[in-house]
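Researcher: Before we compare anything, I want clean individual predictions. No alignment, no superposition, just each chain on its own. First chain goes here; please echo the sequence and then give the structure tokens.
Model: Echoing the first chain and its structure:
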Amino acid sequence: MQKLERIQERSFRLLLNDHDSNYDQLLAKVKKPTLEIRRIKLLATEIFKTINNLNPSYMKEIFELNTRRDSANKRLIVQSQISMKYGSYTLRSLGPRIWNRLPSEVRNCENLSTFRNLIKAWSGPICHCTSCKYIGMCQ
């Protein structure tokens, strides 16, 4: 992922002919999020479509709504995993973590076009430290 971000940074430098700005400044100039945030937004969109029966039925088996607590809040059950490599980074485990970290107004949208507008405006997770990158330790 870091290599892809580096390639994107180099391409922005080349396109903008700007060799002095840092990566965040380049992203602001082109009005694009990082590749990681784009992947998170894409995953969140697929989860929204699955929850609202817009995806194939086999996707419904991957994500399970948590109806035990607050069913109106549309949170997903996070599956506990034994291994980081083969468990925590799978769609079944990573998807609910990302979904549950979205703001509630984004999660509780009713139609896809409104969701896409809200997720497009969302700037991504607040904390980017390595201990909570996908696990959510700081929040």
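Researcher: Okay. Second chain, same rules.
Model: Second chain and its structure:
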Amino acid sequence: MREKLAASGKRIVGDKTPFVTEDCLKEIESIFPEAKVIHVIRDGRDIAVSAAHHHWNHAKDAGGHLNIKPEELAKRDAYRRDPEAFLASGESIFDEKRLRKSFAEGWNRMTAKAVQEGFVLFGESYTEVRYEALLERPAEEIGRLLRFLGADDGEETVRRCIETTSFERLSKGRKRGEEDSLAFYRKGVAGDWKNVFTERDKQIFKEAAGELLIELGYERDDDW
């Protein structure tokens, strides 16, 4: 990163690091303690929906590296043939064990650990931003993050950031909310879990991560 920074003539270089273990922040701190860390927090249920499509796209039968059970592949194929009909049928897009262990418990464990340790490890060099806030008020949030990084937060810089990272541009022309299950930039919305989760899915996620959803403000109480 430092070599690339020196070659670019810029002042700041960044890296997007997805959580793969609950000790991710400790690893960053041990390697680069002077780093500034922005923790992007998103509703775990929306992450679960995105993760299901990600797994479908990286299944071995699609040229990927993930072992996906035949019944999960059958769900994928049925969903892609007719998403509306599949969801209307009441069938879940998820394998129940994967939803509980990988998606719900994994999100709960890693996100909670990062929230607990972020300020402890990095102090004022750690901040959080909600994915939902970036969609709702991009100029305000991007300006705040640029100031946090010590970068130019002028109106033109903020405008270019928003334009460069717009869903329409990244998806090559689709409008936000127009889904392409095979694309990395699939749909670009918040709250889509409400259109996807079955009652059983809600129960599983509540059991595994309901307290964190409430703590982060995604739910007011257990009545959801």
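Researcher: What stands out in the second chain?
Model: The mean pLDDT is 96. Additionally, The chain has twelve helices and two strands.
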